[in-house]
Specification:
Blueprint lengths: L5 H20 L22 H6 L1 H13 L3 H16 L7 E3 L5 E3 H8 L6 H20 L3 E7 L2 H4 L17 H11 L4 E3 H8 L17 H19 L5 E6 L2 E2 L8 H6 L10 E2 L2 E5 L8 E6 L4 H6 L1 H4 L2 E7 L3 E3 L1 H4 L9 H6 L3 E7 L10 H10 L2 H25 L1 H14 L3 H16 L1
Helix pairs in contact: 6-8, 6-16, 17-19, 18-19
Length: 437
């Protein structure tokens, strides 16, 4: 076959070969970066010593490979071919289930019990949680464990056939829940609750292509969490209110996070998901308990809608009991850098939240560390207990004064006992605290 203008064709071919290098040196087209935990190598500094050792060349080769022009597009093209033609998910730890339901392997392992740490260790952990719960209860503080739903438990029917196993009691989730009940640990089993309302929920609770609860499911969980704390502490808190319900197939927030991390060329088709408009409502009598949350990534979506400031008085979000947020947004702050006892006991509510896939390492040493610290701080506990009781007395007196009928009754009792009204207010407050105990 005769081809005219061969030199022109060769020139065009050469330009195409050089385009990635041209894009790297002087970007001619804006290319979106890859999503997920992608860390590109930095350009190394030239030094004679590293040149002669070969270290410079090795690092420069890595830098070129990671930063060559159009690399994100070529990676996406490769991933799409592997996914569409060979049924393979190239993202690490991602499993493609039936009907294209996407899982992280840890959630399937958790449901099957492949990551089971054993009954002895779980019982010991639960006993330690109960010990802390009782210690905090003595100070009129609440400890609550929240087990967030896992995708393995929610969608076991879409597992690949080679990953299906018979149901077993030897799973971390099952053993933790059984022992929470046995040792009377305050807990909310949202894993079970989500499965129970799965077929009756008006909107999707767990996204097909995401690893966390759906935005709508998270809002239901937030409302449930608020209600639980209200009842446990016998207070009125601000509430979550849906102002408008919106559905769209354009997925938002974490509803597409697994697929996004796969870096495919084309977006996968989705059923409509619900994204309500919300607001937090309260009254002048609403109480925002200071709350510390130690959690995995399932709390991020609650954190992002403002629960830490609009429902709670902010006590901190300790991500995997490592980084403290929001402080770490500006400058990294670690749990290791703070006075553990002081920070924990500043709060009225402590929430431990984990999905089933993270239960093997739950509570990420938080319970062990705080229990050890409290065991060596009995004097501090006595001082805090006294301060806490004084605060309770002031709060009850404030409530009495805000209720005209109640306040008049106290005045009458003071007159009968021939003591000051202020003294009677304190006595009534102390009596109420004793009755609560």
């Amino acid at each position: 076959m005769h081809i005219k203008n061969k030199p022109l064709l060769y020139l065009l071919f050469l330009i195409l070969l050089c385009l990635p290098l041209i894009q790297m040196i002087c970007p001619i087209v804006k290319v979106k970066p890859l999503k997920g935990a992608v860390i590109n190598a930095e350009k190394p500094s030239f030094k004679l010593k590293s040149w002669f050792s070969g270290d410079y060349q090795e690092k420069y080769e890595k830098y070129t490979n990671d930063n060559i022009g159009f690399r994100p597009w070529f990676v996406k093209l490769y991933n799409q071919i592997q996914f569409s033609m060979f049924n393979e998910a190239t993202a690490r730890g991602v499993i493609r289930g039936k009907d294209d339901y996407l899982y992280e392997i840890n959630y399937i392992k958790a449901y099957n019990g492949d990551d089971f740490i054993g009954s002895v260790e779980i019982i010991e952990n639960v006993k330690n949680i109960k010990w802390l719960q009782d210690k905090l209860s003595e100070l009129n503080k609440t400890l609550l464990v929240c087990v967030a739903p896992g995708k393995g438990s929610f969608y076991p029917e879409y597992f690949p056939d080679n990953m299906k196993k018979p149901l077993s009691d030897s799973t971390n989730y099952k053993q933790y829940i059984d022992n929470f009940k046995k040792y009377q640990v305050n807990h909310i089993d949202m894993n079970k609750w989500f499965s129970e309302i799965k077929d009756t929920s008006r909107y999707i609770l767990y996204p097909k292509y995401g690893i966390h609860w759906s935005y709508y499911g998270m809002l239901l969980a937030t409302d449930s969490l608020i209600n639980y704390i209200e009842v446990n502490r016998n207070i009125l808190m601000p509430h979550l209110e849906f102002t408008k319900m919106r559905s769209t197939s354009k997925l938002k927030y974490t509803d597409y996070d697994i697929a996004e991390g796969m870096n495919l060329l084309f977006q996968m088709k989705s059923e409509p998901m619900c994204y309500p408009e919300i607001k937090f409502t309260g009254t002048e009598h609403s109480i925002k308990p200071k709350t510390l949350v130690v959690s995995d990534s399932f709390y991020w979506s609650m954190f992002n809608i403002g629960i830490g400031k609009d429902v709670f008085s902010y006590g901190g979000f300790w991500f995997y009991n490592k980084q403290i947020y929001p402080e770490s947004f500006n400058s990294p702050l670690s749990v290791d850098e703070i006075d553990l006892v002081q920070k924990v006991l500043e709060n009225e509510v402590v929430i431990l939240m984990s999905t089933e896939a993270n239960l093997p390492k739950f509570s990420w040493e938080f319970i062990e560390n705080i229990n050890h610290a409290l065991s060596n701080n009995d004097n501090n506990l006595n001082v805090i207990n006294t301060q806490n009781q004084e605060l309770q007395i002031r709060q009850i007196i404030k409530s009495i004064k805000s209720n005209k009928e109640w306040y008049n009754t106290v005045k009458q009792k003071a007159k009968t006992k021939d003591i000051s009204v202020d003294s009677m207010l304190v006595l009534d407050a102390i009596w109420m605290i004793k009755q609560e105990k």
